[in-house]
Structure formats: structure tokens, C-alpha cells
Amino acid sequence: MAEESDPFECRLTFLSLLQKLNASQQSIHKVANYAMRHRKLSEDLYSCLIEELEQASTNARLNIIYVMDAIFSASQKSKFAGYVDLTRPDLPRIIHAVVAKDAKSVVNVPNTQKIMNHWKRKGIFDIHILEEAEKPLLEREQSSSNKPGNESFSKQDILRRMEEDRERHKRIKEEIWIRPPEESKNAEFEDFWNSIDKLNPEVDYEQMMLQNRQRLPFYAWDSVFNYTK
């Protein structure tokens, strides 16, 4: 960020970008890149995110949390912790705002859950912090009475939402396959390995044997594993 950047001017510009935000990757990255360029003013820009989030429309709130996701990913790459540190204590409040208890906001639950799962995979926040913040999502999922009826959305609203969801999902799919350049060669394997449940000899060996027999039925599996059916 240039030293002559004026905090008040940056706030106005950032708010303007947020108010023009849409679901396209270009729009989301434009806002996130501005936040990173001016990260010395992270406290001011973060307050703009929260301010706009809590007064935005249903769709706009979801777009804003995707902006936050883009900011966090960029922060990880540049080793800047400012935005994550500011967000951490407010995370339950943020998630509650995105899935606010009104008829239309329940449609934000699946996308918000995908974002939360993405943050778990990337290690953006500690697991216990994310689990606490997920409570509003679980409450909305379990409450059938909050599901919006057909009268809540017009056909045009539904089609526009479907198109915007496709745009938002593109970035998450891309992020899944992007690995940090500085990580070890075995990092991806270790991630998968750590996500697998521990071996249960009483169940897993039998299942492994059944799979082996189906794949190579004529191999002498009994002699290899001393397995008796």
C-alpha cells in the first residue's frame, strides 16, 4: 500500500466495491485484491466488510463471505494474519448474519457450509472455532419450518441464484487443487492420510480381504494373510 493512501478514501472505495459486488470470480477477486493491497488498513477495511454484511441482501451476504474466503487464501500465500485475526472472534456473528433467521436466508446454508469445510481443509481457523461458528448452520438445517416456500422466490430469482451459485463454486473447486509452492512433496499425501480413520483390525482386515478377492479372485490370498473364511 502506498504511504499516501488516505484511510477515509480507502474506506469509501472499498464500500463502493462491496456494494457493486456480484457472484463472478472477477468481481470477488477485485474486492479481495483491493483488501490485500491496502492490508495496512486491514482494521478499517474489515469493519467495512462487517458493516456491509449485516445490512446486505441475502445474495450479497453470500458474495461477501466468498470475498472473505478469497482474502484468507491470499493472506495465507502472503503470510499475512491480519484479516484472519480480526475475523476469528467475530466468526459466529458472521455466519449468523449470512444465514439470518428469515425465510430466504436458508438458501445460503449449503454454500456457507462449503466455505466452512474449505476453511477446515485449508486450516484457516482452529477446528473448535469453526465448530462453534457452525451452530447456526446446523440449527437452520434441522429446522424444517424455516425452509422457504415457492412464494419466497420468483422464477427469475431462482434462475439468477442458480447461475450465481455456479460462478461461486468455480473458485472453491479451483482452490481444492491448488497447493502452496513451499510445502513438502508429501504434504498432500499426509493431508489425506490424517483424514482417514485409524485401522480397525476387527473389521477392516476382513473388508480388505473381500476387496482383494473380488479384484484378484485366483490369487492365493489365504496363504498371504493366513485368512480363513
UniProtKB/TrEMBL annotation:
InterPro entries recorded: CID_dom, Ctk3, Ctk3_C, Ctk3_N, ENTH_VHS
- The chain positions of domain CID read 6-141
Q: Where is the composition biased (Polar residues)?
A: 143-155
Q: Which GO terms describe its biological process?
A: positive regulation of DNA-templated transcription, elongation; positive regulation of transcription by RNA polymerase I
Region entry Disordered: which residue ranges?
Answer: 138-159
Q: Name one GO cellular component term.
A: CTDK-1 complex
Per the UniProt entry, the signal peptide is: none
**Looking at the Swiss-Prot or TrEMBL record, what is one Pfam family this protein matches?**
CTK3_C
Q: What is the protein name stated in its UniProt record? A: CID domain-containing protein
Q: What is the native source organism of this protein?
A: Rhizopus oryzae
